[in-house]
Design goal:
Layout lengths: L1 H13 L5 H4 L14 H5 L2 E12 L2 E8 L11 E2 L2 E3 L7 H13 L7 E5 L3 E3 L4 E9 L15 E6 L9 E8 L2 E10 L2 E4 H15 L2
Parallel strand pairs: 1-7
Antiparallel strand pairs: 1-2, 1-4, 2-3, 2-8, 5-7, 6-7, 9-10, 10-11
Length: 208
């Protein structure tokens, strides 16, 4: 049952989050992983993302999305459902649910809160991101918003324990080409903030 896995995961999280110690494994060279400077938070835009878990055919999975290609910082990238926190959102958790409903069509009333993971500051877009894990008792029916979601990616959690999915990729930014660590999942490169967040999930799974 998904509840058994979630109970173990919550118990592990309650014992303490890996945080920056895990983040550094998938952070580009030279990136600061914490602690945050006070002005990073004060001057940043705020966002929330949801790591949504569920069970399908006795396999626990989580969902990511691939953004459409556009002329912007995160165009074409793989990420978690989520987005900017609006003034009318009751909390960062509510913002994560709202954005997930808008992007992949889930029913937020069916999502159960598990935990908040370590927050993350993203310098290129100046976003301070809250990270949440939630779960659903049954596999959701995804209805992606095609303006925001190119594809929905369903990932077995155990794949994060496979060290062969970790690799590096070249990324061009501001006329500079840099090499960054990434996960190779379902023929897609998962890097940047999403990979950094996944590195904490990976560490939690390794120490369940």
């Amino acid at each position: 049952m998904i509840d058994d896995f979630i109970t173990k995961l919550k118990k592990r999280i309650d014992s303490g989050l890996p945080g920056p110690a895990a983040h550094k494994h998938m952070s580009p060279s030279g990136r600061t992983t914490g602690p945050f400077r006070a002005n990073d938070y004060a001057e940043s835009k705020k966002a929330s993302v949801l790591i949504l878990m569920y069970r399908e055919d006795n396999v626990v999975k989580f969902v990511m999305i691939q953004r459409p290609v556009y002329n912007g910082t995160h165009g074409g990238q793989v990420s978690f459902p989520g987005g900017k926190i609006e003034d009318y959102d009751a909390s960062p958790w509510n913002a994560a649910l709202r954005e997930s409903e808008e992007e992949i069509g889930i029913n937020p009333d069916e999502v159960k809160f598990v935990a908040e993971l370590s927050s993350l500051y993203i310098p290129p877009s100046n976003f301070f991101v809250y990270v949440f894990i939630g779960y659903m008792l049954e596999k959701p029916v995804f209805i992606p918003d095609r303006k925001e979601v190119e594809s929905v990616i369903e990932v077995p959690v155990q794949i994060l324990l496979d060290s062969t999915i970790k690799t590096i990729m070249d990324y061009k930014r501001d006329k500079l080409q840099i090499t960054v660590p990434c996960y190779r999942i379902q023929n897609k490169n998962v890097w940047g903030a999403t990979a950094i967040i996944l590195s904490e999930v990976e560490e939690l799974l390794r120490t369940l």
